[in-house]
Amino acid sequence: MTEDEAREWLIRHFDVSRETMIKLEAFAAAVIAENSKQNLISAATIPNIWSRHIMDSAQLLRLGRSDADVPGPWLDLGTGAGFPGMIIAILTDFPVILVESRRKRFEFLVDQAKSLGLTNVKVHCGRLETLETFPVGTISARAFAPLGKLLGLAHRFSTEKTRWLLPKGRSVREELESVASSWQGSFQVESSQTDADAAIIVATGVRPRKRAR
Question: Which superfamily is assigned to 3-208 in CATH?
Answer without folding.
Answer: Vaccinia Virus protein VP39 (3.40.50.150)
